[in-house]
Structure of Oxidoreductase family, NAD-binding Rossmann fold:
Amino acid sequence: MKIGIIGSAERAIAWEKHLRTHQSVSEVTIAAKLNAIGSVDACFLLDDTKNRLRRLLEIVKKGIHAFLIGPLPTRNTQLVEKVYHAAEEANIQLQFSHWPTLAPASKWMAKKIIKPSFVQVVREITHAQSMESDFSFDYFWINELAFSLRWINGAVHHIELKSVELNSRKPHVLHLFVRFDSGATANIYVNTASLATNHHRLAADQHYLADCDVTEQSVRLGEENESGHLFFNRQSFDASKSAELAAMEFIKSIQLKRPTIYNGYHLMELNKTLDKIDRRLG
């Protein structure tokens, strides 16, 4: 399989190292633009710009499987749908770098809890960290919403949202509650003015209770014994392997002709849900 990597040389070389270890990869080409990449079977697009979705569409139109590595494209549902349908018609695999879903701890939890009925996320960031961050406030809660929608994988029935804004009208705290048609719920709390840093995800179904310390990439998986007492199995994961594993997941999806772990459908559903939230806020 011939792979193309489009992006800055420094980032592209790092991704090339992940691909070189894969036996099915025969050649890796690095270029700054699509028209310089030559004939390839799949393409890694390293793009953080506002035009990343349009560049992705160009790749799809050429019949090339694509992995977009950059923030999830949001607030452009029409273009997201265009990319999704173009990929479906061309039988092209799309993958997006949604790291909360691709993280090893998340993947392990998803194998244990296939379809959670309850998800709760707490993301607390100190004011100093939020001021130094390259990401906007929206990035934090939208990332967690994408995680919850992907895992629960159901139709959204009801949304409640409350944010704390002071004189500047800039949000500092947000609480988002989502109920699905199945009865499952997702509860997301983000605070960028916190005294201390905390990032936890909790999920449950009728068999398991999973508590993930996202920063440490450690999970406590709880289940009841025959006496009804709750006991925990603890697992720790190496977050530094996320990129390498994501690259392998993408290549496997192409080989096995199966949907990728975070694909165009998931992105489309996220954008539709964001549209519902925007209408409520408007």
User: Anything to note?
Assistant: The first strand starts at residue 2 and ends at 6. The mean pLDDT is 96. The chain has nine helices and 13 strands.
